[in-house]
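Possible regression after last week's pipeline update?

I re-ran a chain I had predicted before the update to compare outputs. Posting the input and the new output here so someone can diff against the archived version. Not blocking, just want to make sure nothing changed silently.
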Amino acid sequence: MEGPASSTQIELDSNMFHPPHASPQAYMMRRRGGDGCSCGANFLMKQTLARSPSHLLGTCAAIFYIFLWASAYVPSKIAATQSSPLWFLAARFLAAGTLLVLLAFVTRRKWPQTLRGWLVAAALGVCANALYLGLTYTALRHLSSGVGAIVASTNPLVLALLAPSLLGEPLTLPKLVGSLLGFAGVLAIVIVRMGTNTALPLDVLTAIGGVLANVASTLIFKRFALREDLLVVTAIQMVAAGLAVIPVAFVFEPTGPPQLHSGVSHELLASFIYLVLVLSVGASLLWFWLLTHGEASRVSAFYYLTPAFGLALSALFLHEAVGLRDLFGLGAIAAGIALVQRS
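New output (post-update):
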């Protein structure tokens, strides 16, 4: 999820990967030869080959990026249960957006020159941030953090199934087997927890709705082929998402943030700072570094680690129970994602 709110996307060999906290401002398309900005991926690779980091550094950076994305579910769970989730999201998006706008001005980045560029970037923010995280935070009021991370990790599986009809991409046997295996793992984990309040069907469906919103942002990006500065697009997305959430928060949380009256806990404050600075800003900057140094493909290669990190962090920090059946389901999900990503 969030990963917060950070947002990125890759397509390698027609397999799409769309991180947390994330939105598709960095969509690398082999058939287009582009990297989501003004330079093609091949050109970028050639220009940066001499200064590319070592294999170990690139691998560590990619795994750390996946870890950051998965880590968003612990503070997001805290935010969903200790605050008004929609108001929290609005504040998070606007705070991160403000920081990124300032950074874009300081570094003299180029802003979109057309209304179309602004509107597409804003639409990506609404789908990949406001809708995705809005639905996810709503689900996390009851849904366990670990299950939330697992549901969100099905993004590439959903994309693999939708790609044939919506993107004209073939559904190969490994993709089909991987998708079925991954969804079977999710179903196994959900069934085990269905007797508790940690995986109620409505909450799981709400989280799946967030995944579908994230997938929609992928389709929007590919349809309109936005080629703008990644930092600028991320800043626009965050601000647009924050503004989009505010009227919804007025409708569904009319009393406003209760913390204005009862105070903010240390856990909630730490969660807000972490999600804004580490996920929305820090993870985005790390993603840009991976793109610049030609290491983005490594993120896709290690994507299968996302549900494992999410479940482990939830058990460690939120003391969520993890049983043997969860581990079997987790193994099926990881294997399914690996098949889809590498087929």
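Follow-up from reviewer: compared with the archived run. The longest strand covers residues 10-12. Marking as no regression found.
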